Amino acid sequence: MIFASLTTIKQLKGAAFAAPFSEMSVRVALSLCLLSGTTAVVLTGCESDKYGFGETRGLVLTKPNEASVNLPPPKNPNDAESWFQYGFTFQAKQMWPEAIYCYKKTCELEKNKKNYWNGLGTAYQFCDKLESARAAFLKAHELDVYDMGPMLSIGFADTRQGKRDAEAERFYLMCLAVNPDQKEPWQNLIAVLHRLDEDDMMPLVQKLSDAPNSPNAAHIADLLNENYLKKFPDDYDALVNKGVFNTRVLNIPLAKDCFEKALKIKPNGPRALIGQGLLYDAIGDSKRAKEILDLCCQSSPSQAMAWTCRGAIAAREGDYKTALKCYTIGSSLSPENALWSEKISLYDRLCTEHGIK
Fold first, then answer.
1. pLDDT-derived band at 63, boundaries 50, 70, 90
2. What is the mean pLDDT of the chain?
3. CB-neighbour burial class of residue 60 (10 A; exposed 0-12, middle 13-18, buried 19+)
4. Is the CA virtual torsion 244, 246, 250, 255 positive or negative?
5. Confidence tier at 187 by pLDDT (50, 70, 90)
6. Would you tell me which of 97, 150, 162, 297 could form a disulfide with 137, CB atoms 3.0–4.6 Å apart?
7. Within 10 Å of residue 53's Cβ, how many Cβ atoms?
8. What is the DSSP track for 175-221?
């Protein structure tokens, strides 16, 4: 698993914002720095061919049948984590049918943990069962809408199959809304744009696939998203993307409008609520930001980003008890994020020092 590093404020000053570097833009930078974890999946071989696919050179694929697998259960057969760890032992040995068998048991016992669905999707992917992989990754995405890993994996499955290019483009753009400096979405977009006959943007995309830290990366991603909205003007995720891109450049009225439109399409949609919460936090309206993020935590309690963004506001206000609670929940939902684990240690210590129980 590959993790995107946090962008420093100094880098953001030169790259991420068109507006002057103010206290408000620092707050935007800090908010957007929260959106950082990803699993990289890159197309290789002949996937960029316009009309067909060759073998994938980046993956060692097999086509076994997990239905024939019959394994003895782990010591705790009713415990999802036991099945997950059992499956991981087979995954480490590239015994994919056995891994699938275990991960399916895991997901049957616990349907609301994204890592379990990611494990199942990964095992299916390595068996070249891309529709099953896509379904598992979609469930993982539903449980954590700001995690780039499932977005990339869904886009990868769609692009390799060559039958949902518009969907693949949408998921790659969602990744770039979270982090336009991430290399893999740019690389994978090349095949999609080529097959969609949108070659006019390909030279810029190609450059960014080689040098994603370019100062204009967010701007080019925004342009691609605008083109997508011309084709699909009522697309919920593209509207959220536009809201995030405009939050980056402090175009506050347009960002607000985008999030409001998105929420009319999908009331209480977690991507839009989290983006809207970050926007209000960026402009200094922490009261409204807390209301929005609290709503997201209540209506979509599996969203790690909502909990940790809420925790960040609480910490800034000196409410270490709430910060500790929120980061603890967020980290339990997305344990791969080491930064959040560090926050737990910090706010646990601060609660102890201030006698907060």
1. low
2. 84
3. exposed
4. negative
5. very high
6. 150
7. 16
8. HHHH-TT-HHHHHHHHHHHHHTT-GGGHHHHHHHHH-TT-TTHHHHH
Angle made by CA atoms 38, 3, 247, in degrees to the nearest 5: 60
List, for residues 12-25, the tens digit of each pLDDT value: 333 333 333 344 54
Instruction: List all residues 6 or more positions away from 82 whose beta carbon is below 8 Å from its beta carbon.
Output: 74, 75, 76
CA 352 – CA 321 distance, rounded (Å): 10
Pick the more confident residue, 327 or 51.
327
Averaged over 63-71, what is the pLDDT? 69
Chain position carrying tokens 């995405």? 141
Token pair of 196, please? 């969609």
What is the C-alpha to C-alpha distance for residues 87 and 97, in angstroms, rounded to an integer? 10
Q: What is the 3-state secondary structure (H, E, C) of the chain?
A: CCCCCCCCHHHHHHHCCCCCCCHHHHHHHHHHHCCCCCCCCCCCCCCCCCCCCCCCCCCCCCCCCHHHCCCCCCCCCCCHHHHHHHHHHHHHCCCHHHHHHHHHHHHHHCCCCHHHHHHHHHHHHHCCCHHHHHHHHHHHHHHCCCCHHHHHHHHHHHHHHCCCHHHHHHHHHHHHHHCCCCHHHHHHHHHHHHHCCCHHHHHHHHHHHHCCCCCCHHHHHHHHHHHHHHHCCCCHHHHHHHHHHHHHCCCHHHHHHHHHHHHHHCCCCHHHHHHHHHHHHHCCCHHHHHHHHHHHHHHCCCCHHHHHHHHHHHHHCCCHHHHHHHHHHHHHHCCCCHHHHHHHHHHHHHHHHCCCC
> Which position has the higher pLDDT, 58 or 213?
213
pLDDT-derived band at 356, boundaries 50, 70, 90:
confident
Question: Rounded to two decimals, what is the model's pTM?
Answer: 0.83
Contacts of 266 by beta carbon, 8 Å cutoff, 6+ apart: 236, 272
Q: pLDDT at residue 1 above 70?
A: no
